[in-house]
Amino acid sequence: MVFVGSRRDLSQISTDFKDTWITFIRSFNHLKPDFSVLKENARLIDILLNLVVRKNKQIREKNVRVVVLTALGEDLKQLKIRMATLIDDQAHLRVFDFAARKKQLKHDIKHIKKNIALTAAVLREYETVDTMSPKQQDRRNFLLKSKKAILTALVAGSVITAPVYAGLLALAQRLPLNKKEGLAILISTSTNKWFEEAFSKFSPVISPAYVARVEIAFGQRANVVKLGATSDDLFAVLRDDAIQHVVIFGHGSWISWQATDRTVYASELEDSKFKRKEGYLVRHTCGEERETKTVRAFVLDEEKWEQIQALVSEINRRLPRKYILTVSCLYYSVLDRLGCEIILFFDRSYSRYSGKGLKSSVFSEAKEVPDADNALKPWSEVRHLFKRDQALLVQWTQVLTAIKEILSLKREYAMDQNLLFGMPIFQRGNIKGWDRVTDPWDFLINVFGDEKLDQMYVEK
């Protein structure tokens, strides 16, 4: 089976391209020796090719030439030729011949998926530059001009050009060293061949340039730099309280990082021996293997939640001591702060730990939250207390109103099915990286995958 890939990347080319590609992949996955969907596959390739040509024309009208779009078109043409050959040969193909041909087509499609990801990244690149000030563009152009030399060095094994090397190091040398919120950069050499050759054979030049770029993005010098980083190196910096920011480079996925000695999985970081870090984990790896499901949830507003808890505390002060009101939130995932239900619960304080409290009320939608009086109906023991104390009733009404406001903000979210590498040591929002196939220039041009955080582009 071939997977569709990133819908975000497909949409970057065009919505029609995304929809057609999804249809093509689904059709291809049903391809069988009876060739029942073969011609339909070929027709969809034609449509995809035309959509790429159209996008290329739109881009060129802005006096911009995107080479990867042309390359993507050429790859689709090659796939079309292979498909046409298969259609011509179908009459005399044996089953095992068909299986071999389909395997080759799968290989071609996976290659095209990588080119789609790169094309989308380049298109986003031009969109980003359009929104930048001249000063930010100057800083960005420094790296854009350097990109060709850097990638050539990585792919071909040649040394990085002296101006690029000197420029990056000069920008990084003046940065401060933070001893309380330190930065660790871990470079694995257990990657594919051209990464490995670049970072080991030519490490005296290339790895300092990469390290300098990361330092510039963080605005501080690295406290720890490990070339050929192992799993033990990762665990060491995670245990070090003086290190709050960690960058990992190498092969990986949404759920793993391939250190030089072995693959480390997200499940290994759930151990309580690792303290929570307040800084960033930056994943300079690929981000495949992400699985999500759509849920209807709210992102809990912590400020509003604290207001609710303050009101609850006031209510409990006014209630007789034998009663305790509790308002809690049920999460789809505590780590993602995605809430699904809010629970109100009155308990008798003397039986709090025996499980013999009063009835609870559970609300999952705003329309389910009743008015103040009806909300008290399940709790006949305390209802009369609110009726005779106006201040208590006002606070109770405020609690219900706040709950209704939180539940009214429910939206559909793509919730992660598998644990993102780095959680729960790092907050979900502080783990930066990609959920697709990546290339080295992703890391060099956009270290965080979020330029608002990158000190290279900060106005000074």
List the helices and strands in order.
Answer: HHHHHHHEHHEHEEEEEEHEEEHHHEEH
Strand order of the largest sheet: 2-1-3-7-13
Outline the low-pLDDT stretches: 145-162, 198-205, 351-355
Q: How many helical elements?
A: 15
**Biggest pleated-sheet summary:** 5 strands, parallel
Oligomer: single chain
Structural class: alpha/beta
Distance between the amino and carboxyl termini: 50 Å
Strand content: 15-25%
Provide an overview of this structure.
- The protein is an alpha/beta fold and 460 residues long.
- The protein folds into three domains: 124 residues; 177 residues, no CATH class; 117 residues, no CATH class.
- The protein is built from 15 helices and 13 strands.
- The strands form three sheets. It has a five-stranded parallel beta sheet, with helices on both faces. Strands 8, 9, 10, 11 and 12 form a five-stranded antiparallel beta sheet that branches. The chain has a three-stranded antiparallel beta sheet with strand order 4-5-6, with no helix packed on it.
- Helix 1 packs across helix 2, helix 4 packs antiparallel against helix 5 and helix 11 runs antiparallel to helix 14.
- The radius of gyration is 28 Å and the shape is globular.
List the keywords:
single chain, 460 residues, alpha/beta, 3 domains, five-stranded parallel beta sheet, five-stranded antiparallel beta sheet, 15 helices
